[in-house]
Amino acid sequence: MTISDGVGRRPGGRSARVRAAVRAATLSELAEKGYTALTVEGVATRSGVHKTTVYRRWGGIDGLIADALEMASEEPWPIPDTGSAAGDLRALARLVLTGFTEAAEAPVSTAFIAAATQSPAVADALRDFFASRHDQAARIVTRAVARGELPDGTDPAEVVRAAVAPLYYRLFVSREPVDATVADRAADAALAAARAGTLGQVGSG
């Protein structure tokens, strides 16, 4: 998922500093303990923010996770720009894969998915997070259309979904092995579908 700790990214007084500190503590606690062991007390201790403040502002662990996702959705994503649709989609799929396989990121990314299956508030925040990522990744497709690599009317979000969905299926449904080869294959399949015109915008033709 490629989510940073957010510290120093949000200017604006004590309230912003408290929010950033609590967000960083939430991510650290998730990385070390996972969703099921996350506690308000642990976040409060790590952040240096009194637990009554945490409860008052975030309500509980689901509020903490949802807010961390909201902050992440507002941050820029390093969208690949290799000069070709094929290279960009492969790099994008590998970027997503890295968020769930690299030791520094995988525990938090996996915890977000686990939390979303149990909390409607986190599920809503996760949906908004992915919507933001899809909006940013859409540049890959709009550039490809402008270069003539993909047909007019191609739906950018659908191409992005098609490129990364097989990774999520293997990671969280079938539990099959997933690596760079699988990521490349998913990206190539999405590109082929887009070139064939099967990922057009609804009502575009």
From TrEMBL:
SUPFAM superfamilies: Homeodomain-like (SSF46689), Tetracyclin repressor-like, C-terminal domain (SSF48498). Keywords: DNA-binding, Transcription, Transcription regulation. Residues 39-58 bind DNA. The keyword DNA-binding applies. PROSITE patterns: HTH_TETR_2 (PS50977). Residues 16-76 form the HTH tetR-type domain. PANTHER family: HTH-TYPE TRANSCRIPTIONAL REGULATOR RUTR (PTHR30055), TETR-FAMILY TRANSCRIPTIONAL REGULATOR (PTHR30055:SF148). This is TetR/AcrR family transcriptional regulator. It comes from Actinoallomurus vinaceus.
